[in-house]
Amino acid sequence: MSIVGDALEFVRWSRNHDAMFRRDLPGPEWFTADDSVFGVALVFPLQGPAGIFGPTCELCARLAAEEVNRDGGVLGRQLRLVPVDGSGAPHDIADEVEALVDLGAVQGVTGWHISSVRRALAPRIAHRVPYVYTALYEGGEDTAGVFLTSETPRDQLRPAMDLLAHERGVRRWFVVGNDYVWPRHTARSARGYARDRGGCVAGEAYLPLGTHDFEPVLRRVERSDADAVLMLLVGSDAVRFNRAFAAYGLHARCLRLSTLMDENMLVASGPEATEDLYSTAGFFASLANRDTLDFHGQYAARYGVQAPALGSLGESCYEGVLLLAALLKRAGTLDVSAIGAAAGAGAVSYEGPRGLLHLRDAHVRQRIYLARADGLDFDVLTELEARP
After folding, report:
1. Would the pTM of this model clear 0.90, i.e. be above it?
2. Helices marked H in the chain — which ranges?
3. Would you say residue 10 has pLDDT above 80?
4. How many domains does the chain have?
5. What is the rounded radius of gyration, in angstroms, for the C-alpha atoms of the chain?
6. Which domain holds residue 324?
7. Same-domain check for residues 139 and 157
8. Computed from CA positions of residues 72, 75, 79, 85, in that sequence, does the dihedral angle turn out positive or negative?
9. Are residues 222 and 235 located together in one domain of the fold?
10. Which of 147, 132, 130 has its CA nearest to residue 337?
11. How far apart (Å, rounded) are the C-alpha atoms in residues 222 and 95?
12. Residue 288 pLDDT grade (very low, low, confident, very high; cuts 50, 70, 90)
């Protein structure tokens, strides 16, 4: 059993015994609350489709934790990351993280995990400890105590669809996504964005996480006469789809746009499978600015040139740790209500690989870019202009 699993079993056991009996009962030694340490549950995928970028998520978060600790830690404590596998059933992950909070082993939560996990986790812990969610998502999260660093469809997808309609004449879209809340809600937004440009979503297909056979969907795409496919697939599912799409020959007649396609997924797909593939994100490793180049240097110096490729999903976990530290520094307390008040006052900011960023309405305000696959890298074409 994992360390976190041990903690979960301990909490389940202790909840079933009289409080007077368990008052002085020690928990597992590693999980004993320590006033000199600020524990942070880092929830990220260790396996499954999203496991392809899990190593980068962990390495980037650890790099940020080391930076925070060099600067004095969090409220005078050393920040310690507690890894939690975010690739399982959402309610099981919520159980594990809640167990860590119950034990006093963590005082904050961050990481990249899918929206189904966030929806299970937020009601359980956000009122008790600050929760910084780093994955792009469908929008609309307003749970008190939840703070978000990444992109939403309004600022990420809408301007990308607008630009492709204008520059490439895209009118008919086909949505291919995994079958959970983020793809389905994002597709609902995409229908409206397409209509605004005189276009339409001609078809939609939602597949279980871990899908290998895409031929039935590709036949539907072919019959739909779509100009473009909006890919809302996670990790290795997107990799397999890219390969199948190219093998089917659809790349010659239909472009692809993904809001979740990092450098690890691009490399795994292979250059022969990514012709006319676009990605939109707030960070690309190929951005040629000082902040991005500095981040490359720090990452390579710490982990070596053979480390997993930097990308937007790993970088988001770096920012998650930085934002959590910034929230606590501004509030000066672990109290979630006070942290929320500090965030609501618009006074929380941090500086990272994307420059100086500010928090407003619990979301980080950010620049977002459109890039096109170019071999094993992305060619960043433009910064997207957000509409009001």
Report:
1. yes
2. 3-15, 19-22, 54-70, 90-102, 115-125, 153-168, 181-196, 215-224, 236-248, 263-269, 290-303, 312-331, 336-344
3. no
4. 2
5. 21
6. 3-152+296-365
7. no
8. negative
9. yes
10. 130
11. 43
12. confident
